[in-house]
Amino acid sequence: MTTQPYLKAGRDFAFPDYKPRYPRQTSFKINHYRLELKVDIEDRRVDGYAEIRLTSNGSMAELDAVDFQILEVTGVKERDYDGKLLTLFFDGAGEKVVGIRYRAWPRTGVHFVEKEKGYGFPFVWSHGEPEYHRNWMPIYDYPNMKFTTELLVTVPQPLEVVSNGELLDRRNNADGTSTFHWQMDKPHPAYLISFVAGVFDKDEEMVDGVRLEYYVPKGLGKLVKNSFNKTADIIRFFSNYLNYPYPFKSYRQVCVPEFVVGGMENTTATTLTDLTLHDDHAHMDFSSDPLVAHEAAHQWFGDLVTCRDWSHIWLNESFATYLENLYLRHDKGNDEFLYELYNDLQSYLDEYKRRYSRPVVYRVYKYPEELFDRHAYPKGGLVLHTIKNIVGEESFRKALNLFLTRHQYSNADTEDLRKALEESSGMMLEKVFEQLVYSAGHPVVKVSYRWEPETNLFKISFKQVQAEDSPETYGLSLDVVIHSGGEKVERKISLEERETTLFLSMKNRPEHVCVDPELKVLRVLDIERPLEEALSMVEKCGSVVCRIEMIDSLAKHGGRRVVEVLERVISGDPFWGVSYRAAKALGEIKTEEAKAALLRVLQKVKHPKIRRGIVEARGSFEKDTEVMRMLAKVVEDTVESYYVRQAAAISLGRLKLDEAVPVLVKALDYPSHAHVIPSGAVQGLAETGLEKVYEHVSKRVEKSYPTPVRVSATVALAKFPEKHETYTLLERLSEDSNERVRHAVVAAARELMDPRLLPMLDKMAEKDLNERVRRGAREVSKKIRDHLEKGVEYKSLREELEKIREENRRLAERLYRVEGKV
Predict the structure, then answer these.
(1) Is 38 exposed, middle or buried (0-12, 13-18, 19+ CB in 10 A)?
(2) Model-level pTM?
(3) Is residue 48 part of a domain?
(4) Are residues 44 and 147 in the same domain?
(5) What is the largest CA-CA distance in the chain?
(6) Quick one: 446 and 325 in the same domain?
């Protein structure tokens, strides 16, 4: 049977000019890439000499090279360069050695950080994913070619360089520079090549013969333990789970300032944001473990085996996301695992509802980085979780080992994964992949049930009601657990039809029903649950997922009894995530009883993550001075966690009280991990909506402030749509050198939805150096234009109605006159 991908292409992802993009075809293969690079920090320049050993099947090879000054090319018959592609011509096929001497002032791909933001030293680091290395090295910049590499990087002393593979040599030069010679002896794609230059504190350890190294900016060595103490256990867990030992000799993690993402899994040399480094106080409720696990998982999925083209990026990102969650299960237990799956589902659904839907594997795109979204990360991880539960965990693990072994140090696509899963499980999975991977959307199941005492039958009905962007009917199975008379009845319900109804013979009236309590399936459930059941069972049910879903149901009902139950859940549930959700539910209810309950539990609950939920919920009580006093106390209390104080600052602003402003202004200078309290204070000030706080917000977009504060302030400008300065600032910030700030400009524009921003957004959509910024800007500009068109349509309709009314008035007048004559 031949698969039929893209049964449902989704909605709103592809713009009209988008076309299917297929893997690049080449007539050559790079075997080894050796690069000598000298970094000029003051001039933000690189001078390079690339020696490329390749095999040509024809007489030509094309390398990506953007805005280079090509000084010399050797080993070719002739060459041609158009500013983007360097075309090499040979005398026939065969083994070639090409030398390219060049100079470049990279606008992206290599990032220079001034010493003021680099702890007293400058930093330089590269970032290649998906296709940014073409801005500083002549390279085949696409994932479907892998080769060994050498980097010899020269930097000013006292900087040192960290790169892929092993350090072969370090040489101090007479001109005050040092040269570091790194070699990667296993093939990897261009985007995983990396170098970082800076001044570091370093630590290392061994795990099962693998050397683990940790590089952090000089002076921050004391923070290594909090961030990286689980690394050895993570490497060992993945090696055991996959039955495939860590595939390289060493693994190093390098923290740098101003990194553009959380982490990047460069082969053997992951680059991480320095914001993941944290002190003991932050360690109360902040952890680097998810980031560390995610990037480490990529050493198998992404580095050892690399997606053949970007449409299959889920093979990198979904696996890293899911393996990160599996490590969480190993490290902290099943409740934490299920809660993370639940949060992943909500994250994906947020993108699905607010922005677009697309298949997990999709070829119709313009920029590769558009595909690095919540469909590729959390949704893809949930798809893998669903497949694991279909084939069984033992078969799933065997399939992953087969997939890795078969395609090690090479490329693979989604069909390679499907075949490995089928071989290991003995199951046919084409339908599963067509529905979950090659189609957009997800199952939505409406569940209702009724007890019939006359016959002792329990009727339970399932109806698939997913939207038109999803397959009409999914073939899936849901676990159902029915609690009745102290007994637990478990059934697996197969849903092959759009509607399914079952009658179960029961001795006693069911007290409680859990559907898919272990969240084994990517799904949305709409359960018609009786209020009394939720009230009585939310404190008793053993499933974290089911308890959270009951809390969501209770929040919609409200009422005194619901508030009383939720208050007990906050204080007494054995898992913090359920308590957090219960606190948020009280914020949604917004009654005086809910407010009083939140004030009481804040006095009793000590867990910082639950306290965060409580103070977040209290922001719902606008203009309440009692709540304001309690939140102000939290903001000012240095014993509280940084993140609880940040949440309190934001909630304080949401109350929209003048009296909150002095507290928030003072909080702008509070020290905290990753500047979260000042960032929260900026957001809180903006939430007040008061004109007098505008200066505090607007001046913090300037480069003298830390990036997290600048980002928060840039987004916060959207709270001041009436200020002309807002639009002037956003236009200036749209050309800021900081990618995170430009992302924030797009976020502010999305909230403002103002036509005055269209020229700025159009320019960003066309020219921004970052592909995701381009995508976001185009998306927002389209939304604004859609609103304008609707406005025009409404205006046209109103004008037409006015014409009709006028005609009717005239007709009435004529009729009146006629009648008058009569």
Answers:
(1) middle
(2) 0.94
(3) yes
(4) yes
(5) 114
(6) no
